[in-house]
Amino acid sequence: KKGKRSTKTGDGKAKQGPGKARREEAAALREVKAGITALAEKLESETKDVELFGPLTEQDDCPICFLPMPRLVCETVYMPCCGQSICGGCLHASIEMKNKTKKKALLCAFCRWESAGAQKDEVTIEEYRKRAEKNDLNAIESLAVYHRDGKHGLQKDQVAALRLYLRAAELGSLQAISSLAQCFYCGDMLLEQDYGYAMKLSTEAAKRGYLDAYFGLGCIYNEHGYPDDAVKILTFAARGGSSKCMEYLQANNTRIGDHVVSGEDLELIEKAYEEAAKLDWSEEREAYKERYQRKRNPV
Predict the structure, then answer these.
(1) DSSP class of residue 118?
(2) In this predicted model, what pLDDT tens digit does every residue of 41-68 receive, in sequence order?
(3) 292 exposed, middle or buried (CB, 10 Å; 0-12, 13-18, 19+)?
(4) Which of 33, 82, 198, 290 has CB atoms 3.0–4.6 Å from 185's, for a disulfide?
(5) CA–CA separation, 51 vs 287, rounded Å?
């Protein structure tokens, strides 16, 4: 007689079959979707009388150079050792100093602790988890990204990433709300494409003054045949300093759908954008952006 195949692991626990794993993932995903639905309803109830084109949120200053923090998240750096976010320019300056002094370790530009980037993955993740336990929004969002992409030793787990984004959004992170909107817009991270939810969440982030949310919102309006609204949204954000919106207007040769932006109007928008962008400009930040772009798009 053939012996029965063992259904237990080495530690005596029962193995989980693929069917059970899929059912558990589906149940977890339904729970997350229900949480997002409840969040969207709560956010909408809080902004019934809030204008879409209201005041933008003021940027905190970088704790090192004291310039306003860049509005694009990719131009800021979070340090889990001390829980501080700094601008990319200050990180660039710290890297340049390390290279000049030929030091082996890159120290945190703020607290001077050994940078998480030089540590082992398990040490780095433990630092993020400790900060996340204290409801540090940047740490929670970073863990979401690492689960999403399977980085720093974490397994790729889209449900875990969505849970973390939802948690950060519930705690008030406009970036997390915008990230969830992007997931619905693209049909990403196990979420089906849903422009309705993408628009709802982007609108709520924008009404709270989150500049990045206007770009996604403008794209949705344009793709659904409302070019006039799209131009109004993109222009408002470009004037506020959104490089994404400014580049979108320029790349489309002043035409969005059936709406034509005159050359004169575009010049005025560009001037307002440049004035807003000057407030947080520095040579070090430009150098960091070049370094970041090279890293993302190697020749």
Answers:
(1) G
(2) 999 999 999 999 998 988 899 999 999 9
(3) middle
(4) 198
(5) 37
Q: Which two tokens stand for residue 86?
A: 């700094």
List of residues 6+ apart from 164 with CB closer than 8 A = 132, 140, 141, 143, 144, 147
Rounded to two decimals, the pTM is: 0.85
Which residues lie below 8 Å from residue 222, measured CB to CB, with a gap of 6+? 230, 256, 257
Q: Give the span between the Cα atoms of 230 and 228, in whole angstroms.
A: 5
**In this predicted model, what pLDDT tens digit does every residue of 126-177 receive, in sequence order?**
999 999 999 999 999 999 999 999 998 899 999 999 999 999 999 999 999 9
Please state, in angstroms and rounded to a whole number, the distance separating the CA atoms of residues 216 and 158: 22
Decide: 174 and 211 in contact? Cβ < 8 Å: no
Contact 141, 24 (CB under 8 A): no
Q: CA 31, CA 168: separation in Å to the nearest integer?
A: 16
